[in-house]
## 1
Amino acid sequence: MPSRSDTDDYLSLFLNDIPLMDVRAPVEFAKGSFPQAVNAPLMNDEERHRVGICYKEKGQDAAISLGHQLVSGDIQAQRIEAWKRFIASHPEGYLFCFRGGLRSRLTQQWIRDAGINYPLVIGGYKTLRRFLIDSLDELTESGDFRILSGRTGTGKTRVLQQLPNPVDLERLANHRGSSFGRQVTPQPSQIDFENRLAVAMLKAHHLKGGAIYLEDESRLVGRCALPDTLKERMAQAPLLILEQSLEDRVQIIREDYVVNMCADYKQRDGEEAGWLNFRDYLLGSLERIRKRLGGERHRQLHSIMEQALTQQESNGKLHAHDDWIQPLLQEYYDPMYDYQLRQKQGQILVRGGPATLIDWANAALPAQLSS
């Protein structure tokens, strides 16, 4: 493998999805890393904990000595083999630790002793994270945003993905943004969400250009919080209002939250357990808005939902779900959306169905890129 230099070209790493080997401990990786990073730790959590205590009590030299004792022999050989597998799969990648210091240099040396030169990221995780935070702040301040808005069930995410330069906040947060929005896979940590968002914004700015389209979201997308500055910019940005008939909206909700979610649970958990977990998901989502619905209305919708689930389980028919979807849209989500729309500060640029909005955005694109 030809020798490559260590890098401080952080923008290139993220724009080009360069593979990164994160040699920090698993507990550090779980708190937050980068979209293209894989954890291949120098020390496991227990080893790191013991070395940390030694560092506080006896200083750096004693901590380094203990680290070498803990990661030696077969353990060291196993770690090196894991690094070699990563390098073989990702010869264009880089490694990093927290600050680009002792752990990454030691990893680099052990790999070199095994006959491989593999570069590191100068400054490590801390510098990469700072670069993304600063970049997101700058792009939020200077970005030209367009907000795709519309009532629940209009299929905003489907339309967003067909616009010229979208950043899909719900995909980045792995959550659809409502009380029913949980996915079968967990959400990222807040740090991971912020890092994903910054990378997506960098790509939208540098690789595509022009206005960035965002779906109208609350401050929280599930448990992931939008940065306050971005939420403020979104509240002032121009709007595209997506409109669909009530019948179409009910169908979209049924497809997204009944058909697709049931399939996702069964794929993850198997037929029987998947059905039970899907059932719990749907009833639990309704339970989360119980107080806002009021006790009596919640009981009515809960009963209708249970009957629809029973029918779905017995004969596979789905249209009984429409009997809870439609009143939930009309009586709960629509009034809430109408109120929120009245609070918006941004100019409404266009209203209409999916084709109208997509055509408008594409027609506006040349003017945006030439300005």
Note: The chain has two domains: 10-130, 143-371.
## 2
Amino acid sequence: MDLNVLWIVVLFAIGFVGSFISGMVGIGGSIIKYPMLLYIPPALGFVAFTSQEVAAVSAIQVFFATLVGMLAYRKGSFIHKKLVLYMGIPIVIGSFIGGYGSRLLPDSAINMTYGVMALVAAVMMFMPKKGDESGDYTQLTFNRSVAAISAGVVGILSGIVGAAGAFITVPIMLVLLRIPTRVAIASSLAITFISSIGTTVGKIMGGHMLWIPSAVMVIASIVASPIGVKVGKRMNVKLLQWILAGLITATVVKIWFDLLA
């Protein structure tokens, strides 16, 4: 197989896996794709992406993965509009600031930011979840100040690493805001889509976008994200929580092992 074709197949596979998980557990998929893009291509003999390039490619892929996933969840009452509003606006402002400002940071600072975010998310996923999983989703209430402030902070940090921050907004919803799991997953896709707008624009303006890898990842997103949504809708809530916790924890271990090595 031609090396260029193999390179595209590898990128598509990374995008497919990340986008499938994105649709299934309500994250942008960057928690998976970031380390995969960073480590898999050089392990197979291809030129390694820099952290800046990985962050940029992840940003545009997350935009499309969450858009497709959100559309797949549009039926039903799982997407909580007020939650999306109170978290979406602060997170898009923060993500633009972080995405554009990341051009001033070295790769080591970007990787450290990602490692800290993933560690916090992993800790939160193992904390008790108190959301009512069987109630009327349209009558949900939540602390609006906590939602807005936490979303703004997550936006800035996720903009830096090119992630939309869903891998930490979902734990925030489950633990701090006490949102039921399926509502958190569906609403997170909508919030992540909004966040990815600011992150993507910031990354493009920062000059780190690689268009061919981005296009391959976008195609993978359009194919895989709806499949993940269908699987997630049929899956047990506790199993969804444990899958998300496991993915985040595995990424934390890998990122911090590399940071401390």
Note: The radius of gyration is 17 Å.
